[in-house]
What we know:
Elements: H1 2-22, H2 38-43, H3 48-55, H4 59-79, H5 88-99, H6 103-111, H7 116-130, H8 136-187, H9 195-260, H10 264-273
Amino acid sequence: xxxSSGLAALAAHAALALPLLAQTPKPSPVIPVQPGxxxxxxxRTLTAWDLIEKGGVFLWPLVIMSVFTLLLILFFFFTIRxxxxxxxxxxxTIDARLRKRDFLGLLSDANRHSESLARVVQRTxxxxxxxxGASLEAIREIAESEGTRQAAALNQRVSYLADLGAIAxxxxxxxxxxxxxxxxxxxxxxxxxxKPLMLASGVSEALVCTAAGLLVGIxxxxxxxxxxxxxxxxxxxxxxVTTQFFAQFSIAHGQSSSGGGRNPARREVLMEEx
Length: 274
């Protein structure tokens, strides 16, 4: 009797379980990814404005310095050239005027030109016409000092790029330190949910400032190396044309002093008129 009652109970439980096993589980509904989610935002390409916003306050000086560096490069590209030292037309004018020993006419021509050689000629002739008794050695010193000053002014203009190349990485390093301070400050925040966001923001600011500072520094130093070499060649060219001018001037001045030039009274009248 006990065995038959147990078999009956087991059969009853199996009958109740069969409908449950026959039911197939329904698949879970697929939730479509809506546009504008975090994944899509992560895959979006960063624009220049996004990088500027991530760079923080220290990125703005680097942006200004990059614009100023580009303007200097364009300015030096059009001004640091052989035409700024001496043009062929002005060299021909010097030769023609000195052959005629027309010092005042050459002085007037030099005042109308902006080349470096014109400044040397203007300074030399201005001294020689105002000091008629000066020796050639004194006049040579005036010409050499003015040539040295023109060469120094040329090299000084180029050195601005070296200054920008040295300052830009320092500002980028300062922005890097500020970003790391911001990141480590996030570790001590009370709200645990904001720690990852603040940590990522600080690291992003540090990396953007580092990259921007290095980019401006590399651009400025590369341009400085190019224009420094070019300025060196132009300085040598200025020394050559200055030596050539003074040699021609010495010959014309010697002929004028020996009596082949204008008479002193007429020269004083021309100086007053000039």
